[in-house]
UniProtKB/TrEMBL annotation:
Protein name: RNA polymerase sigma-70 factor, ECF subfamily
UniProt family annotation: Belongs to the sigma-70 factor family. ECF subfamily.
Gene3D superfamilies, per the entry: 1.10.1740.10, Winged helix-like DNA-binding domain superfamily/Winged helix DNA-binding domain
Pfam families reported for this sequence: Sigma70_r2, Sigma70_r4_2
Keyword check for Transmembrane helix: no
GO molecular function term, any single one: DNA binding
Amino acid sequence: MGENEQIKALFERVCYDNSVQAYNELYIALCTRLIHFSASIVSSYHLAEEIVSDVFLSLWQKKNELSHVQNPVVYLYVSTKNRSLNTLQEQKRHQHDSLDELNTDMLAIAPEAENGMVSAEVSQKIERAIRSLPARCQLIFRLIKQDRLSYREVAELLNISTKTVDAQLTIAVKKISLAIRFDLSDETAQTYLRLDS
């Protein structure tokens, strides 16, 4: 029996016998291929895994209505493609939900002249430097420096690792230090930009 016949047999057992075992075998047989296919559309393996998982969930929910399906492989690919494209549309519609498409103007809060340590002019330079950072980097810097969140809290909030938080902060601090290097002594800049992990 060829692979497609095997898949057809498993699909029929799902539809006619409500077989959980056949359903699991069908998933194992196809999930890797479908995830790669979906990822080529949505450019994210993580998202593709969710999409394929949804496709199979939907298959299980509608299994008794699908006995007419002649080619289960094509059916599952088409379902995956449709769901991937819908997800892409949703993402475009809610682009501000993506951390890389943030409306950074909403984040802009001029750093306070901490204890008179930083003049208003330098404060503006710092703000310009922060605004020039990539959106996610900027958000992380502000959450830690201005909102006083810990590395762990930011990691949890944004669903990223504390290593990523640390790496993004290093980029931010380097850029800002560079922007104000002629205005503040190294020591003052270090004190101002000190970030406690």
